[in-house]
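Training component of the fellowship. As part of building independent skills, the fellow (R.M.) carried out the full modelling exercise for a liganded target. The chosen ligand was protoporphyrin IX containing FE. The inputs are recorded below so that the supervisory panel can assess the work.
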Amino acid sequence: MFFVLFFSVLLGYLIVRQYQKVSRLPPGPISLPLIGNLPQIIYYLWSTGGIVSTLDLFRKRYGNIFTLWVGPIPHVSIADYETSHEVFVKNAGKYADKFHAPVMRDVRNDIGVLITNGDHWQEMRRFSLQAFRNMGVGKDIMETRIMEELDARCSDIDKLATNGVTITHASEFFDLTVGSIINSILVGKRFEEDTKHEFLKIKETMDASFETFSPFDMTAPVWFLKTFFKHRYDKIWSAQETAKNFAAAEAIKRVESIKSGKYVIDENNLQDYTDAFLLKIQKEGESKDFNIETLKTMIIDLWMTGQETTTTTLISGFNQLLLHPEVMIKAREEILKITENGSRHLSLTDRTSTPYVNAVIGEIQRHASILNVSFWKINKEFTYMGGHPVDAGALVTSQLSALHVNETVFKNPQEFNPERFIRDGKLLQKVIPFGVGKRNCLGESLAKAELYLIFGNLLLRYKFEQHGKLSTTELMPYSAGKRPFKLEMKFVKI
Ligand code: HEM
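Fellow's submitted model of the complex:
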């Protein structure tokens, strides 16, 4: 009798407390103490077939700002541009701290730029943005690097052609192109015959570990994973370690060469990110933030973020172009006109004169929307967002996947239709694939340059035809990020 009474009182107390907490948050489905909305989330993940469709369903029911309780923690998703801008740009300083998957913090040892907060994150981010700027990201020098890499890959494709036609795995082509660009920016090396197979193998291992990386892995405590899901933990850890050692191997060789006097950093002609980092150490000495271990971690952070994202977008884009050949033809016509019938390559300076190509890339990025679940930021004090109260301790994010399929902003969101951006010139601003605010994408300028130059110049050089199946559905609808599928296509030389 006593226990029944005790548990009834406890339950009553927890329900009242939950009710009070809910009143200090944006609307959402009815939540229970401790387990929150897990039953509804699991049910809708199963019945709608994925994370994005589940988030979209909750947005339609509860509005552009809604709360889902993942266990005892409220997660607030913002699914429109205006509120995202108001929260993360106008109040940027308040949302610099991300919630990091405990397993990734453990793997990264709380260093680097991707999975850190506070002073160390700020130092790493500031330094990297400056180093990228000094290396000409967004300017002519970077265009030259990207075009040299694309030329080399196209020449490989052309060597394999029979009657001007090469059938190839698009993922391998883009992995090598994008991988080489970031690798050469970071450690001054592109992937050639001798290194490309090892690179592709490591990418495959990382892809396999990402594929199993679900929202569960993002939230589960490390001890829990290590005890009950050791296999999952080991897989994530070893994929990250292998990739880090591979990506940073050149930098470590350079450290040795500097020690033995075989390599001297030329301050006036820095070759890459590693030169910039080592120069800082040479001038100021090793510190808590700048040392060889942080260099290795920065290389893997930038290496990882600089590849998967861009390759996934390129593959998703070519898949869309093959599904919509009329879009491909219209984009090519615009590129031919601006480059005087292909007498020169398409350059970044052409961007203002190619509204249709810009619209196509915008529509590709809206569809590709590479994160199924965006990174969560920590709300540290009670505030209002879009007129709703948001309690301290809630996690908030601009939920990009839901935002990009919001039909009140993008009519018929499932349709691939670049014309929507031609009809409404301001709509393109509302596509925010790189996120907003202090933690937005550090490589945005580089990625934009890559997408424009690679899409544009490939369309100028080749016609693309379907070979095998195209994808019309999401490959991994339950993983935290979108995964590219193995697209095969024909490159037909023009
Ligand atoms: C199409 C390509 C890309 C897309 C769509 C993309 C998208 C994103 C998104 C959505 C975020 C999270 C933003 C947030 O939490 O608000 C992010 C973060 C980041 N991106 Fe990218 N990205 C791309 C390419 C790149 C490239 C080429 C690099 C590097 C060279 C890069 C480096 C990073 C880094 C380091 C972060 C974490 C920044 C921080 O936490 O301070 N990204 N990216």
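The panel noted the following from the submitted structure. The longest helix spans residues 230-259. The pocket of protoporphyrin IX containing FE is lined by residues 113-114, 125, 182, 301-302, 305-306, 309-310, 313, 370-371, 375, 400, 433-435, 439-443, 446-447 (CB under 6 Å).
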